[in-house]
Design brief:
Layout (H helix, E strand, L loop, with lengths): L8 H8 L5 E3 L14 H12 L6 E4 L11 H21 L3 E4 L9 H17 L7 E5 L12 H9 L7 E6 H7 L6 H14 L5 E6 L1 E2 L10 E2 L8 H8 L9 E3 L8 H12 L16
Parallel strand pairs: 1-2, 2-3, 3-4, 4-5, 5-6, 6-9
Antiparallel strand pairs: 7-8
């Protein structure tokens, strides 16, 4: 959701199209640091949150951040920017900060994984008692990006000192592009079971729900509207009816116009895939 006009305005936008959860940037995604949050903007955000039933809210970190950057200056800027992102989320009461693990840029996966964990341990040391979850996102494996294998994520977690601070976000487009087949019922179940075996579903804080413009195992990250890409609707039907994932917030990251009609269409497609409602009132998580 856009935060144009103030971070609190995202709630009005989300409510207007029937969202039950949302993701925002807490600042300009293309900048290292944003203008500090004023006490007024924080209070406006909290007031807006109290007037709706949109929960949880997650944030995405700036794309510039690379927590395993080989250049000392870039690594320093990345660590400082990441700390700022955590502080902004905590001040607003946001549940999870989602970020791409990082790109090793030729230094190798092993060194990159060690450097990411080191960066996160430093950030956690500086934010003792924060409740916002530090949330690693699965990636498509484009370039030298880490996080395209579940094993990468678990190896990072293994090196984290405050493991209770760490969570994971799965992106359906990234999974497919990285070579995890989710296009059939059997493949979907196999991939989710594999994730559970390696990382654990208990760590899953969010799911980015995106179709893919590119082919399976392309290692290219290009999002497409639901049902318009290469993944196929079977995967999204499985997602929307998977009891293991019913309470996990599901976020669209597809292109949209100012009137958000594309979001409305994508949400309608996803909700149409849900099996007949149970006898009792369905939980909000089933609509995410």
């Amino acid at each position: 959701m856009s935060i144009s006009g103030g971070i609190h305005t995202a709630f009005r936008r989300a409510e207007s199209i029937g969202c039950t959860t949302m993701q925002i940037f807490t600042k300009n995604a293309g900048q290292w640091r944003g203008k500090p949050l004023s006490s007024e903007s924080i209070q406006s955000y909290k007031n807006a949150a109290a007037q709706v039933t949109i929960s949880p809210v997650v944030a995405h970190a700036a794309y510039l951040i690379n927590l395993c950057a080989p250049k000392a200056a870039t690594l320093k800027d990345s660590r400082s920017a990441f700390l700022d992102e955590l502080q902004r989320c905590e001040a607003l009461g946001i549940d999870a900060l989602i970020f791409h693990p990082g790109s090793h840029l030729g230094r190798g996966e092993d060194e990159g994984i060690i450097r990411i964990a080191e960066s996160l341990n430093i950030a956690h040391e500086q934010t003792a008692h924060f409740r916002v979850l530090t949330t690693l996102e699965t990636t498509a494996g484009q370039g030298t990006a880490l996080g395209y294998r579940f094993e990468h994520l678990q190896r990072i977690i293994d090196l984290i000192e405050q493991k209770n601070r760490i969570a994971i976000c799965i992106d359906t487009c990234h999974l497919f592009a990285a070579g995890y087949d989710i296009s059939t019922e059997e493949a979907w179940d196999t991939t989710i079971r594999l994730f559970d075996d390696i990382v654990g579903l208990s760590r899953l804080a969010a799911i980015h729900v995106n179709d893919s413009k590119k082919e399976f195992n392309s290692r290219v990250d290009r999002h497409e509207h639901i049902g318009k890409g290469k993944i196929g609707l079977t995967a999204f039907r499985m997602l929307m009816n998977d009891a293991r994932l019913a309470q996990v917030p599901k976020i669209l990251e597809t292109e949209k116009s100012e009137d958000m009609h594309e979001d409305v269409q994508n949400i309608a497609v996803l909700r149409s895939l849900i099996h007949a409602a149970p006898q009792k009132e369905p939980s909000p998580g089933m609509d995410r």
